[in-house]
Amino acid sequence: MENKTLRKRILLTGASGTVGLETLQHLVQHTDYEITVFDVKNQKTVKKLAPFRSRVEIVYGDICNRDEVLKAAHNKDFAIHLAAVIPPLADINPELANSVNVKGTENLIYALEKNSPHCYLIFSSSISVYGDRMKNPEISITDILQPSPGDKYGETKVLCESLIQQSKLSWSIFRLAAIMGNHKISKLMFHMPLETPMEICTPQDTGRAFAKAIEHHKKLEKQIFNLGGGEDCVILYQYFLDKMFAEFGLGKVDFPKKAFAEKNFHCGILKDGDDLDNILGFRQQNLKDYFDIVRQKIHPLQKKITFLFRNVIKKWLLSQSEPYHAYKNGNFKELNHFFNQSDEKKLEKALL
């Protein structure tokens, strides 16, 4: 008979998200894990978590509600905290981002300290905490945390990291590179300068890292790590978009000048990213694998239809570009936010 006292009891928040689902896929492969999933209940989460019902305990609740979090945090050995409001919603609704990301993390820490004081907490932070790195794209964990102006998501992650480090719990923080998977095209694509060197990581590898952290927690405790795909996952944003547009049938990335911002975003190359992989060995995919995954998800007919309507689609996309609107309208404040050297005539117009 199996000795259940030897089983590791794990709490996973945000399991229905892109990284959360991948983490859960890796966790359920361990028969000695007792897994509790905590997530908000809606049609989408219920559908995504349905395949795991026989293998995990699913607790639906609101991470902003301390009492509901307390119920899920009893007798846990490990907690992987992935629940968060991410961009663009975090920028559109900063109050919600603060409630879920910061208050939610505060609630989880309180609940674990009260009901699982010996729990080891693994937290998902972000490369956005480093802010604009266009001038110095190589990033190390010792670098100053300075989210770009207006980056509410990055600001919440800095606050969360501070809360965790001040807690009584044992912890590790992973600052995630650009995690590419199930991304919907949004106005955010125009916020990143085309010359940005970016390091991606696939959701599969990222989920693998969080799951493997449990096995190797003694080598990770009370430490912060940058998590990325490594040198085989580094690409210039311009080339990344070129490749993605070609895969989707959108043709060339031929937007007008000033459609893309020139500053005040984030991303870069993780100079010390190998440190985490040397411990966990989570990297199994590279850029080629990522684009293969993208290609497999696109139906040939869908690609043909997209190609036929590519000009209409790109016209709509351009209408979503905030940097372009700032340039066309001569909005001095926004011009200054998005661009290094704004068009003089536009500046003059804004100042009149």
Would you write up a description of this structure?
The longest helix has 22 residues. It is built from 15 helices and 12 strands. α1 links the parallel β1 and β2. The chain starts with 7 loop residues before the first strand and ends with a helix. Strands 3-2-1-4-5-7-10 form a 7-stranded parallel sheet, with helices on both faces. The protein has a 3-stranded mixed sheet with strand order 8-9-11. The protein is of the alpha/beta class. GO terms for molecular function: oxidoreductase activity, acting on the CH-OH group of donors, NAD or NADP as acceptor. This is 3-beta hydroxysteroid dehydrogenase/isomerase domain-containing protein. It comes from Flavobacterium bizetiae.
Secondary-structure blueprint:
Elements: E1 8-13, H1 18-27, E2 33-39, H2 43-49, E3 57-60, H3 66-72, E4 78-81, H4 89-92, H5 94-115, E5 120-126, E6 138-139, H6 152-165, E7 170-176, E8 178-179, E9 197-201, H7 203-215, E10 223-227, E11 234-236, H8 237-248, E12 269-270, H9 274-280, H10 287-297, H11 300-308, H12 310-319, H13 322-329, H14 332-338, H15 344-351
Helix pairs in contact: 1-7, 3-5, 5-6
Pfam families: 3Beta_HSD
Organism: Flavobacterium bizetiae
Protein name: 3-beta hydroxysteroid dehydrogenase/isomerase domain-containing protein
